[in-house]
Amino acid sequence: MMHFKFITVIARQEWASIFRSKIPLALFSVLLVVSLLATFTGWQYVSKFNHQQRAAHQQVHDQWMSQPNRHPHRVAHYGYLVFREKSALSFFDFGLDSYVGNSVFLEAHRQNTVNMSEAGFSNGMLRFGELSMAMVLQLLVPLFIIFIGFQTVASLKQNGVLKILLCQRASYLDILIGKTAGLTAVGWTLFLPLLLLSLITGNLLTGQVAAETLLRIVMLTILYALYFLIIVILVVAVSAVSKSSKNALMSLVLIWMLFFIVIPKSAQTLGSSLHQAPDKIAFEQTIEQDVSKQGDSHNPDDPYFANLKANTLKKYGVDSISKLPVNYGALVMQEGENISSDIFNRHFDHLISIYRSQNAVCSILAFADPYLAIRNISMNLSGTDFESFTAFQKQTEKYRFEKTKKLNEIHLTQIKYQNDNQQKVSAKNWQQQPDFAFQPLPVAENLSAGSFSLAALVLWVLAGFGVLAYVSSKREYQL
Amino acid sequence: MLKAIDLTKRYGGHTALNNLNLHVRQGEIFALLGQNGAGKTTTINLFLGFIEPTEGSASINGISVAENSQKIKEYLAYIPETVMLYPNLTGLENLEYFSLLAGFSYSKNELGKFLTTAGLQTQAFDQRLAGYSKGMRQKVGIAIAVAKRAKVLLLDEPTSGLDPKASNEFSQIIKTLAANGTAILMATHDIFRAKQVASRIGIMKEGNLQSVIDAASISANELESLYLKTV
Q1: B-side interface with A, Cβ within 8 Å?
Q2: Last residue of a domain, which of B102, B129, B149?
Q3: I want to staple A183 with a disulfide (CB 3.0 to 4.6 A). Which of A86, A201, A232, B191 is the partner?
Q4: What domain count does chain B have?
Q5: What is the mean pLDDT of residues A176-203?
Q6: Residues of A in contact with B152 (CB under 8 A)
């Protein structure tokens, strides 16, 4: 049975005892400096990156617009570089941004990919090398909680105070919940304002705080609050089952290593060995082979294109391509584009499904490791996750296909087959084409992508309270 | 007030307490004498509900400890050999905290009175416990029991390590508590102190209560002889 009155008293005492000591404040000061540094460097990097990218985009766009009147197929091969600006919260959680590209060169006939390396797609522990605010909150705050909380129950056991406490009217469950509440209050008071400050300031500095970004900030704050609660429960539970403070500290440091190094690294390895993905060269070779199998538009004897020719002649009721009312060359090119785009999309979807399966291993292991859960959902909400990157890749291919199709249509209708190479069309034709603008995934889709991690966090909280109830019911953990 | 009927505790093949039958009445101080491992602390822990009996029962005010481990907390207080409490809190703050957890909210004046009753000097009230002597901490422990209005007091080697003056003060205080109706069960090695404060004295050996003596009927020397013969 729980007594709210006693829980409040214990929580207040826990809070007061932590702030009586100078060590927690010293530790917090270090984390504060690291957090501010991480926020500032993250924001600085992202702003500089976005600024450079905007300048590059403007340059590419200007070059595109300043093309003279020319043949549309030359325009198609002139190409266009598209960019993805980093998300509004990417300064907070770099996620996969450091490992995936943010620009693609779009041209006719070729589906150029953004960085497709395995390291680029998977949620590896390579992230240890960088310093982001999310990393501080995910990896270092748990260490802080361990250091301020490892002896919270174990020391009371060691010096006999627990027995006196248990002789008052508060139950052992009251004591454990009270300790949890006190430590959680400390964690929340110190780090949630810092998290909010970092997120809001970072956004204000970029001059744009969209309503959806605010929603993401609120959700991130709630989820990090849950994460800290989970770590506190874990610390209190381990402290309660340990015979001494030293044992509690050793166990917690081991758990930290397990949760923050061993399981994430193993999840990565397990995922990639269970679901092997082709490398970039193999991926592109397979697409080329499939395209060749389907039909080679440059080979006059190719059966697929011979068939296309026959059908076109029949459709227009003529016996020669020179008599067609449209440019047959453009028709062939568009058909080749349809084929290659279709094959690319198929292979790309398959590749994505492999990487999704790899990442699913991480998502499932989030039920065994709360760090994986918060890491995944934090990336999702920061728009730096795998799905955000995939969305960019898909949007660029769609844009490339539509752009090429439009140029092929110009070629088809405005360029005569008989004098194909010598003709030009007005630059207005491509100047009127819409520019590429990456549409980030809406928050609902990000949340949906992180649903496993979300469920894992909630389950961890519930299971954590279950463990505290179990520990409190066992007499052997009271002595 | 405190009753043990055939109370037995075994750990595997080892019997820590064997068929203890004991009744400590209101206002009585019962001292359990015995060497280390005689079963004194096991008896205290069984009355506190920290361990479950293998056989028999322990009850406080007619309530079974094993069946109502939470309910019996209303009646009892416990003072261990070394009262550590919270070293960063003052005596007054420690008392306030433990009283709140016992369900009592007292004013600073009232808390001060409890500490005075327990024999703590006024100037020590606002000092951190880290600077207290062992005797002073024991007094805070007594104040916690008094503030809780405990009807039963369980003491485990309470005078161990105290200087004679502090030990004597402690004895006087618990005698006062008993005179006010508190039933006290005290485990101790200190034959002289047991003779000084207890109404009855039980001598334990290897988990068995070997004999129970009326303290008034025996001199300290006789008690010592009997104790040495028994253990």
Answers
A1: 45, 48-52, 70, 73-74, 76-86, 88-89, 97-98, 100-103, 141, 144, 148
A2: B149
A3: A232
A4: 2
A5: 94
A6: none
- From start to end of chain B, where are the E strands? 2-11, 14-24, 29-34, 55-60, 63-64, 76-79, 152-156, 183-188, 200-205, 208-214
Question: Furthest-apart CA pair in chain A: how many Å?
Answer: 104
Is the CB of residue A35 less than 8 Å from the CB of residue B104?
A: no
Is the pLDDT at B7 greater than 50? The verdict is yes
Tell me whether residues B102 and A169 touch, CB distance under 8 A: yes
- B81 falls within a domain: no
The answer to whether residues B18 and B121 belong to one domain is: no
Q: Nearest Cα to A446, choosing from A408, A389, A407, A361?
A: A389
Q: What do you get for the CA distance between the two ends of chain A, in Å?
A: 20
In the predicted model, what is the mean pLDDT of residues B103-112?
95
Asked if B169 and B61 sit in the same domain, the reply is yes
A162 neighbourhood in chain B, CB within 8 Å: none
Residue of B nearest to A162 (CA): B85
pLDDT band at A300 (very low <50, low <70, confident <90, very high): low
Beta strand B63-64 with B29-34: parallel, antiparallel or unpaired?
unpaired
Are B138 and B197 part of one and the same domain? no
A136-149: pLDDT as tens digits: 999 999 999 999 99
The residue of chain A with its CA nearest to that of B47 is: A167
Task: From residue A277, give the alpha-carbon distance in Å to each of A119, A121, A289, A301.
Answer: 11, 10, 18, 35
Q: For B128, which DSSP code?
A: B
In a domain, B80, yes or no: no
* Mutation target among B74, B100, B132, B140 for the A interface, most CBs of A within 10 A: B100
Phi, psi angles (nearest 5°) of residue B80? -80, 180
For residue A35, give Cα distances in angstroms to A136, A150, A273, B126, B204.
6, 23, 35, 39, 62
| Same domain? B69 vs B91 | no
Is B48 in contact with A167 (Cβ distance < 8 A)? yes
Distances (CA, A) of A437 to A54, A101, A105, A399, B212: 11, 16, 14, 9, 93
Structural domain including B118 reads: 86-149
Q: How far is CA B63 from CA A292, B1, B68, B103, B124, in A?
A: 89, 9, 7, 20, 38
Residues facing residue A106 across a β-bridge: A80
For residues B214 and B163, state if they share a domain: yes
Interface test with A, best of B92, B101, B146 (most A CBs within 10 A): B101
Q: Which among A159, A167, A475 is the nearest to B78, CB-wise?
A: A167
> Is residue B122 located within the same domain as residue B162?
no
Q: Which residue has the higher pLDDT, A225 or A84?
A: A225
CATH code where residue B6 lies: 3.40.50.300
Render A57-85 in DSSP notation, one character per residue. HHHHHHHHHT--SB-HHHHHHH-EEEE-P
Encoding tokens for residue B25?
A: 């009445």
Of the residues B149, B170, B203, the one at which a domain ends: B149
